[in-house]
């Protein structure tokens, strides 16, 4: 959870802990209810929402801080998840303290 902003690959994680990649993915999904990749996206989006609500950082800086090298990728994933762009989310969140 601490390294959510770093580039994380399931096969590297599996190698580090000494288990098969597919076993890790299946075990993780059984325990957490989603794939490791989806868990990471969920965590990154939660962190981004907090930053959009509580900071004045530009969206591209928030994207980088939560682990997205490309701010357009971040914005696309954010919009798919919340149905609104990060910028518009921040504006609407500011209307409701």
TrEMBL record:
InterPro entries (UniProt xref): Homeodomain-like_sf, HTH_AraC, HTH_AraC-typ_CS, Tscrpt_reg_AraC-type_HTH
Start and end residues of each HTH araC/xylS-type domain: 1-92
Keywords in alphabetical order: DNA-binding, Transcription, Transcription regulation
One Pfam family of this chain: HTH_18
Origin: domain of life: Bacteria
Any one GO MF annotation of this record: DNA-binding transcription factor activity
Identification of the protein by name: Helix-turn-helix transcriptional regulator
Originating organism: Phocaeicola vulgatus (Bacteroides vulgatus)
